[in-house]
Amino acid sequence: MCNAIHRAPAVPTWHAMRKAQGANAFVKVLDPRANGSLQDAQNNISQFIYERAIVDVCTERNMHRVIRGLEYGILKTPEPFSVSLHYLIFEWAPCDLRSQIDLDERSHLAVVLRWLHHVATGLQQLHFSEIAHQDVKPANILVMENQTVKIGDMGRAHRHAVPMNHVKQERDPTYAAPELLYGGTVNSFDDRCAADMYAFGGLVFFLVTGTSLDAELTRELAGMHHWSVWTGTFEEAMPYVRRAFETVMLRAVASLDSSVTLRLALVMRQLCDPEPLHRGHPANRSGDGSRYGMQRFVSAFDLMAKGAEWRRDRMTVIGIWCHGGGTPGGHRSMPNMPGLRSLERSTRQVLTCQSRRPCGGPTLAWATLSS
User: Fold this and answer.
1) Which among 180, 247, 183 is positioned nearest to 218, based on CA atoms?
2) Of 85, 178, 191, 290, which is most buried by a Cβ count within 10 Å?
3) Nearest C-alpha neighbor of 144 from the set 90, 93, 97, 99
4) Nearest to 101 by CA among 152, 141, 130
5) Cα separation of the two ends of the chain
């Protein structure tokens, strides 16, 4: 059974279910009847085969933060007008980051930072295998049923040293790097990784501010300096882009959660710097590792996510103790979560001290432990 999810001109995406097992999957189908010419059909088939080869590499190397390919093949339609339909089957994801799960404020930061850790890990896995994704954006980050995320859609991906036999698709300008928006060319795998890094930074910006980085740059750039009308070189436009970027970042930093402001602002600047030579982690730029390596950003987001998860769990447990019934002097054990044993002792001390105050005890305990 198949239901259409997204109908592109030549490559519609379907939701399929295997009746015997009840398992869901994505099915990507190449329909040559949707092409306007034989050359278009040949180009799309070449692109589809190229994508299939990249999906095979990702699956064989067990990239657990990249959507997994399950099966591929060719299906022939019945006579008398038989047509060969190429298809790819991928593991199922209920939604993407455009349709974010409705999270309460306390959970939102922890979940978003963990998602970003997963995406950074996926990019690191791809780049390590010399694959540039070239289309990192919310629509291509898939939220799995267990609330983890994976990178999907390899339709624009490029594998280093493996030539393309098809015309490349245009990039989505919403998350494209400035050097590409201003007409720059991609001459090396490092250039592709730099563009992936900027797109990932744009994803970070979107998830923590709710708006697109390139849209914010458009607001700040004077009309004559915008990439849509600029006739000079990227280097000549750089001073105007830099000024707009600094203004946008200052405004964004002011809206960040205070618990991660400094670290997250620094990471966003390193990922999104409009000048490729200044993009990336300083240690990588100085020669310690690949110039656009993701490993240090994987570690940074893992650390920020763990801190946000700990704060979320701490406040949840304290909220249950203070407002979930039972006496403040009770001796119920807290859940066995990392870092909460000492919190249990502190909570008992504070609640015991405040139990003599009929009003305000739990409130004071909450305020004391959340500071």
Assistant:
1) 247
2) 178
3) 93
4) 141
5) 54
Residue 173: asked if its preceding bond is cis (omega within 30°), the reply is: no
Q: What counts of helices (H) and strands (E) characterise the chain?
A: 11, 10
- The token duo for 351 is 């609640």
CB atoms within 10 A of CB 232: 10
DSSP 273-325: -SSGGG-S-HHHHTTSS-TT--HHHHHHHHHHHHHHHHHHHHHHHHHHHHHSS
Burial class (CB in 10 A: 0-12, 13-18, 19+), 49: middle
- CA 226 to CA 289: how far, in whole Å? 34
- What 3-state DSSP class applies to 132? strand
SS3 85: strand
Summarize pLDDT for 49-108 with one digit per residue, the tens.
Answer: 899 999 999 999 999 999 999 998 888 888 887 787 888 999 999 989 987 655 555 568
Residue 137 to residue 206: CA distance in whole angstroms: 9
For the chain, state the CA radius of gyration.
Answer: 25
CA-nearest of 228, 252, 241 to 173 is 228
Structure pTM?
0.80
Which strand ranges, in their side-by-side order, compose the sheet holding 13-18? Answer: 2-6, 13-18, 23-30, 84-91, 69-76
Specify which residues 159 forms β-bridges with: 131
CB 117 within 8 A of CB 130: no
Strand partners, 91: 25
Cα distance between residue 222 and residue 368, in whole Å:
49
Distance CA 335, CA 305 (A): 20
- Taking Cα atoms as reference points, which of 263, 309, 314, 345 lies closest to residue 107? 309
pLDDT in tens, 74-87: 888 888 877 878 88
d(CA 237, CA 227): 9
